[in-house]
Amino acid sequence: xxxxxxxxxxxxxxxxxxxxxxxxxxxxxxxxxxxxxxxxxxxxxxxxxxxxxxxxxxxxxxxxxxxxxxxxxxxxxxxxxxxxxxxxxxxxxxxxxxxxxxxxxxxxxxxxxxxxxxxxxxxxxxxxxxxxxxxxxxxxxxxxxxxxxxxxxxxxxxxxxxxxxxxxxxxxxxxxxxxxxxxxxxxxxxxxxxxxxxxxxxxxxxxxxxxxxxxxxxxxxxxxxxxxxxxxxxxxxxxxxxxxxxxxxxxxxxxxxxxxxxxxxxxxxxxxxxxxxxxxxxxxxxxxxxxxxxxxxxxxxxxxxxxxxxxxxxxxxxxxxxxxxxxxxxxxxxxxxxxxxxxxxxxxxxxxxxxxxxxxxxxxxxxxxxxxxxxxxxxxxxxxxxxxxxxxx
Length: 393
Ligand code: SF4
Ligand code: SF4
Hints:
The protein is α/β, with parallel strands linked by helices. The chain folds into 3 domains: 8-108, Alpha-helical ferredoxin (Fumarate Reductase Iron-sulfur Protein, Chain B, domain 2), CATH 1.10.1060.10; 114-262, Rossmann fold (3-Layer(aba) Sandwich), CATH 3.40.50.1860; 272-392, Rossmann fold. Helices cover 49% and strands 7% of the residues. The chain has 19 helices and 7 strands. It has helices spanning 8-12, 16-25, 32-35, 50-61, 69-76, 83-87, 94-108, 114-126, 159-164, 166-179, 195-199, 203-219, 230-246, 258-267, 297-304, 330-333, 335-351, 362-374, 384-392, and strands spanning 153-155, 224-227, 254-257, 279-283, 309-311, 356-359, 380-383. The strands form 2 sheets. A 4-stranded parallel sheet has the order 5-4-6-7, with helices on both faces.
């Protein structure tokens, strides 16, 4: 980047005002520093703090600094967990700014990081970040699950649940079928929601994916989308309306996470958990579900509806929940950092005295199951939806 760069992509993304606001409003209070899960991996140096990244962006904006490779790397050592946003008293949209700065680094050729380039190439070729065959996107579909040809509700599978963790998706589809809610499913026509691409600044590719999905949803006449993935629901809920407008496409679709559907069905008594499950559980709030979508009560309401379940909270919960370490492309490019963050959260879960760690996010689930194994932890892992389904049968 040249010394006089004006961070032009912020203009294109409509974030110039947010950046100006952040640069003029940041009080340098440093509240964001101790809560940031990745800051300690910079040796505790100030340059790795969220505050410092804002300060450096100001220098670039003023033509007094450059987005050097070191700074670009620091921008990518961020899980986009929003803990900094939560504690910042000045309402600065910090994660939007980090993501736009990453996009700027991609535009100038120094970002993203190698692992992100690799899944970016897979997305271009296969429409998913795992390099899995497009034609097998519906391989999670069980023979007794029959989506409707046409329905107002679309079940969005997402890449991780469709290819890597089908039980979360299968549970959702089984429950919709059980209560007689018709839903359609786009199968191999669905493409990656763009979350890993968007979060790592690869916006040209993200535009293609979002445009393709928005056209598909509109052609199918979808009014509501439900998905079990916290990353997909965050992206569909918050990013799609903005990008659809940017791309000149219609967007009039409500997005819900499966936890919201389950709670509605429980309240309407259409789901009745009857089987007693004798477990002491502790619930981890996924960043993309909690801070990003304000979904804190629903998973707890589901757990409390199950006979025999005792919910024991961790000290850091709800809006103060710690991160699992997987988000924002950190697990892909900095696996050791992600593992350390995940291990520390598992140890916190152990301290509650619970016997089971539960959550509602495929990325948190992957991180925690690996940590539980590596730490030889006495805790078991279960998905909230898995316990719900078990108590119904
Ligand atoms: S989003 Fe999370 S990891 Fe990124 S700077 Fe903020 S607190 Fe740190
Ligand atoms: S918490 Fe907000 S105001 Fe305080 S230093 Fe961090 S970004 Fe600036």
